């Protein structure tokens, strides 16, 4: 029910934008988030946005990434600017609803080259 898109390749200093769309008329989203998993590492949270718009970012992306959401479209984005090689990972979108059910999108690869 979550469809992620927008991954790809970029050079260090460049930008990419990921999208995560929720499908299903009964999908009443509460919180949404992006996670990433680099090779050989555990999955980590990158950014989170609550229904009320409150956002949190992991320190390593503060000032570079933003996580806007459009509830009318049931879509969340991850705008990634000033990309670094260490941002290379598979990015996953996450959502939960008011029934405390959780959902994961399929991963989308982001590769940043120097």
Report on this model:
The protein has no helices and 12 strands. The model has no long low-confidence stretch (mean pLDDT 94). It is globular. Strand 8 and strand 9 form a beta hairpin. Strands 2, 4, 5, 6, 10, 11 and 12 form a 7-stranded mixed β-sheet that branches. Strands 1, 3, 7, 8 and 9 form a 5-stranded antiparallel β-sheet that branches.
End-to-end gap: 35 Å
Helix content percent band: under 10%
Q: Based on DSSP secondary structure assignment, what is the total number of beta strands? A: 12
The SSE order reads EEEEEEEEEEEE
What structural class do you assign from the helix and strand content?
A: mainly beta
**Radius of gyration of CA atoms, rounded to a whole number:** 13 Å
Low-confidence region ranges: none
What would the principal axes of the Cα set say about the shape? globular
Task: Give me the oligomer status.
Answer: single chain
Percentage of residues in DSSP E strands: over 45%
Mean pLDDT: 94
The number of helical runs is 0
Instruction: Note the main sheet.
Output: 7 strands, mixed
């Amino acid at each position: 029910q979550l469809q992620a898109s927008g991954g790809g390749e970029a050079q260090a200093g460049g930008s990419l934008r990921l999208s995560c769309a929720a499908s299903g008329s009964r999908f009443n989203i509460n919180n949404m988030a992006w996670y990433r998993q680099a090779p050989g590492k555990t999955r980590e949270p990158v950014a989170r946005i609550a229904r009320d718009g409150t956002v949190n970012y992991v320190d390593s992306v503060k000032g570079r990434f933003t996580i806007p959401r459009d509830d009318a479209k049931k879509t969340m984005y991850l705008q990634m600017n000033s990309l670094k090689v260490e941002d290379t990972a598979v990015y996953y979108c996450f959502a939960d609803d008011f029934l405390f059910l959780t959902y994961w999108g399929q991963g989308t690869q982001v590769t940043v080259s120097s």
